[in-house]
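Example complex used in Figure S2.
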Amino acid sequence: MAHFFSDKAIENFKTVQTPFYYYNTELLKKTLQVATSEAKKYDYHIHYAVKANANQQILSIIREAGVGADCVSGGEIQAALKAGFSAEKIVFAGVGKADWEINLGLDENIFCFNAESIPELEVINELAAKKSKTAQIALRINPEVDAHTHHHITTGTKENKFGINLDQLDGVLNKLQTLASLKLIGIHFHIGSQLLETEPFFMLCKRTLEIQEQLAKRGISLENINFGGGLGIDYNDPDNHLIPDFKTYFEIFHKHFPVKSGQQVHFEPGRSIVGQCGALISKVLYVKEGSFKKFAVLDAGFTELIRPALYDAYHKIENLTSDEAEETYDVVGPICESSDCFGKALTLNKAHRGDIFALRSAGAYGEIMASQYNCRKLPEAYFI
Ligand code: LLP
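Predicted assembly (384 residues):
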């Protein structure tokens, strides 16, 4: 693939109001092609995690690749339907589903509700009964696998709000037997996000086999196993790893989780599908000389990309319009908060007012997490 930004794209950037999101749809399509062909080797099913990026054009491209959608709100279900995803390819997760959202899922006959607690099961059962429907349920289980990732995006350990803990599973299954409008079709996990090691996925396979055995003792056979998402991307060196290693990822599961006949295995990748195809494009408003350092003050702030402020996340920053000798800058935004900083002591080609900066690997959890704090406008999106 040519450089992520063509010369023509950079020329165009100069004429457009910044900040905005730029998506390389060619890369998105290639990524989808690799992900789906690697999954197909083992007959695995992919549901794209809509939370990573719900831009309609992005969703349409993803839907064309033939994958399903993993949604965590009624709004995401609506966005997925609008982009043409069929309801039987939609799964609905989330620890706090509101009644209207459950009703929407029931009315649309979505594939499955990933449920996380007894009170939630009771409500889904009651709402399904009112409609004389049966809701398909997968239990989200907390497998107690440590994902070794940022504590804000770790989800598979006992102390966080997600999932049914292993010691509570029997109680939930007992309850489930009494809920006539629910049908258990599988189990669901998601241990965390931005995982770059294989060991947590290996542990997840091991734990899943144990759980499967425990359920088999109760006469429950599982038609669907959903391993969630989590595969990480290379934020440090995006150009050398534009497409994540889906091959190794799916191989781990193939090697360590033998699929039973009639069983379907599902995955919910978000970041690994859309992360590298997007960049936040911004202009330098001012180069400000501090007492002992220089600041490049951008017109984008944490309102457009909150990951650095929220998780200390690193996004590679490039000055697309300067090839002058490198200097050291703190790259900051215009928002009235000290946390509005994209990176400290970064080495960049000498910056001037008007230079165009790209914040790379921002396709996932970028545009979708934008806010209007300081009465700012939500960013536009442009596509190659
Ligand atoms: N499935 C479930 C149930 C999830 O909770 C998530 C992400 C995914 C799938 C997709 O995970 P992925 O493949 O993208 O890792 N805003 C944070 C990430 C939050 C992830 C929440 N759950 C960030 O910017 O890093």
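Residues 25-275 form a domain with the TIM Barrel fold (CATH 3.20.20.10). The chain has two domains: 25-275, 276-383.
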